[in-house]
Amino acid sequence: MATNSSALHSTASWSNDAGPELNYFEKLWVAWYAYMQNDVLATGIMTFAMHETIYFGRCLVWAIVDLIPWFQKYKIQQDKAASSKEQWRCFALVLLSHFTVELPEIWLFHPIATYFSMSTSVPFPSAAKILFQVTIFFIIEDAWHYWTHRALHASPFLYRTIHKTHHRYSTPFGLTALYASPFEVMILGAGTVGAPLVWAAVTKDLHILTMYVWIAARLLQAVDAHSGYDFPWSLHYFLPVWAGAEHHDVHHERFVGNYASSFRWWDYLMGTESDFMKVKAQKKRSKQE
C-alpha cells in the first residue's frame, strides 16, 4: 500500500489501478492532502480542527443542558454551581492551553506518526479494526491515568505545583476536563498519545484515522466525566466497569480516590474507589441531621 504524497495526488489511480474503489470520505481525504501539498501542514490543521470541534462542541452541549431546568434533577452536586464568571475564566485558560501547549504538539504529530510507522494512506481500516484498537487504547490510557493521577495526589509537591489547578473547581462542568497546568496536560496527555504510538511501533499496523477516532472518543469521555450529571441512561448503569461522571465527580468533591479515567477496576483493585451511592446516602443523612 502506498503512503502519503505519492498516493494522495490521484483518487482515480486508487479506484482504477489499486484495488477497491474509494468511498466518499476516502476521496475527501485524498483530495485534502493533494490540495495542501504539505503532509505536515495537512495533518496538523486537520488534527487541531478536529480536536477543537469535538471538545468545545461537546462542552457546548453540556452548557445548554445547564440552562434547561428539567435536567437539573440529574445534577450530582445540586447545591453547588460555578458562576458565569468562573466558567468564562475556565474557558479562557483552556483556550490558551490549547494554543500554547497542545497546538505545538499537534504540529509535530505528523512527523512523529510517520516515525512510528503510522499510516495515512487509503483505503481506511475496517470499522472492526478501529473499534478493537480504540478499546486497547482505552485500557492502556486508563492504567497510565490511574497511576500518574494517583502519584500527583500522593506527593504534596506534585499536587501543589502540577495538579492543584485542575482542582480549582470542586463542582466540575464540561469545560473543566482540560482545565489544567501545562505540565499536567503533557503528563496525563502522554497516555492518550503514547498508547497509539507504542501500538504503532510494535505492530506496524495503525492508521491515523484510528488515532482520530481514539482522540475524539477520549475527549468525549473526559468532557462527559466532568459534566456533573448522572442520568438513568448513563453508560455505567449498563456497563458496570465504566467510570462515568458520578465516579469522577466524587473525586472532585472529596479530592481523593477515584483516580482512573475510564474504568473502575484499578480503583476497585487498589482500594481507592469512593462509591457514589454511599456518598449520596451520607449527604442525605447529613441534611436530615
The helix fraction, in percent, is 55-70%
Radius of gyration (Å) = 21 Å
By DSSP, the count of extended strands is 0
Largest sheet at a glance?
none
Please, what is the average pLDDT?
Answer: 89
Q: What are the low-pLDDT stretches, counting only 5+ consecutive residues below 50?
A: 1-18, 283-289
Number of domains: 2
Q: Helix segment count?
A: 13
N-to-C CA distance? 69 Å
Q: What is the structural class?
A: mainly alpha
SSE string: HHHHHHHHHHHHH
Q: What is the strand content?
A: under 5%
Shape: globular
Can you offer a commentary on this structure?
- This protein is mainly alpha-helical.
- The chain has 2 domains: 1-37, no CATH class; 39-288, no CATH class.
- The protein is 65% helix and 0% strand.
- The protein is built from 13 helices and no strands.
- It has helices spanning 4-7, 11-17, 24-36, 39-67, 84-107, 109-115, 127-154, 156-163, 182-203, 208-225, 245-254, 265-269, 276-288.
- The chain is globular, with a radius of gyration of 21 Å.
- The termini are far apart.
- Mean pLDDT is 89; it is low at 1-18 and 283-289.
Give the structure's gist in a few sentences:
Its main location: membrane. The chain has helices at 4-7, 11-17, 24-36, 39-67, 84-107, 109-115, 127-154, 156-163, 182-203, 208-225, 245-254, 265-269, 276-288.
Keywords:
289 residues; single chain; mainly alpha; 13 helices
Layout of SSEs?
Blueprint: H1 4-7, H2 11-17, H3 24-36, H4 39-67, H5 84-107, H6 109-115, H7 127-154, H8 156-163, H9 182-203, H10 208-225, H11 245-254, H12 265-269, H13 276-288
